[in-house]
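Dear colleague,

Thank you for sharing your sequence with our group. We've completed the structure prediction you requested, and as agreed, I am returning the results in plain text so they can be pasted directly into your records. Please verify that the sequence below matches your submission; if there's any discrepancy, let me know and we will rerun it promptly.
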Amino acid sequence: MARRSVQFWRIEQLNGDGLSRPFPARRVAEVLKKAQDAGTDRHFTSVDGTVLLAQAVASSPHPVLLLDRVRDTNLPSVGDALGRRKPLPLAPGDHLLETTYFAFLKRNVIAVLTSGNGPRASRMGEYLEGMLGLEPAQVPVVREDIEEILTRLEVSRFEFALPAERLSGKLMEGEWADVLDSASRLMNEGTFRISLSVGRSGKAEDKQRIRDRIQQLIDLFRRAGSVEHFDYVVAEGKDSLTGDREVVDLLKERFISHIEVDPDVFNDPQKSTAEAIAILNKQARDNEAFFARTLPDIKGSADSGLVPDIVAGGMATVRAALAAAVESAEKGGHVAASPEAARHVPASHAPGENQGGADHELVRG
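Please find the predicted structure tokens below.
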């Protein structure tokens, strides 16, 4: 058996505003399925060059999407029984797909079945923004008292460790990605450990500046989608309310389920999708009481009008068409943006914005 994790995130905002109604996940699944059936190119290239591809695999009882990281370079090798290495046998037009599974649950919770090789949970937000003009802000679902504890904590130390063989910038984002990527070139065995502390000497204002910086780095670390791959992550400081010293285990603060899966099932594209849907639906049932107790209830119905149809190239193509139409209108004095282009732009978006699973599946074409 192989170990997998199910992370839980919550969509807190959409397009910069607080989200008090259901996220239109079912409409997203519908437009993805429509694009699949029509043969529309759904690939999106993020600003760091990562190519992403989503598809809808279920709409009931919960919409389930697959998000693949598409690779055709820097591929792993294949080895025979004696360890002789040879290239992965990809036919022309084939790509390596590494998959993460997303189920959109009640209370705007997203259950994310991961393995470490597929896209991080935040990549779904990048894809939805790049292809549909939606900007969901995701926050991790945490245990009941952790936010209160961390708010009161005057942090003095932050430390984490992980096996050297897991070192990869893909686990994190921003500055932490740079740290882990550099560390991966320093060592590939043993344990990598890093510790940040305020120190004993120095002026009070200097210590507070260092403390604020460490708190900023902790917040960035907590927003990463791969904390469960670390062996040890702690924040230490004084509780500003009680004066007690607190050591907070950040591996235990995230609400994450660990499950055992059959690796043979997850090596088969069709079986793995069915198994992932079953796992995510079971997680939804098992944790509904916790979500009901700890998360705000969501009223009303989803605004499906926010979700346009997908066009090849995503929102970058739509914005380019609108910009060209505006330029033409300015030159001619009467030419308007085409109805076809306008139909694909959500009401909350305008031209000028920037575009931006351990399962290995071979796909033809």
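Summary note from our side: Confidence is low (pLDDT under 50) at residues 351-365.

Kind regards,
the structure core
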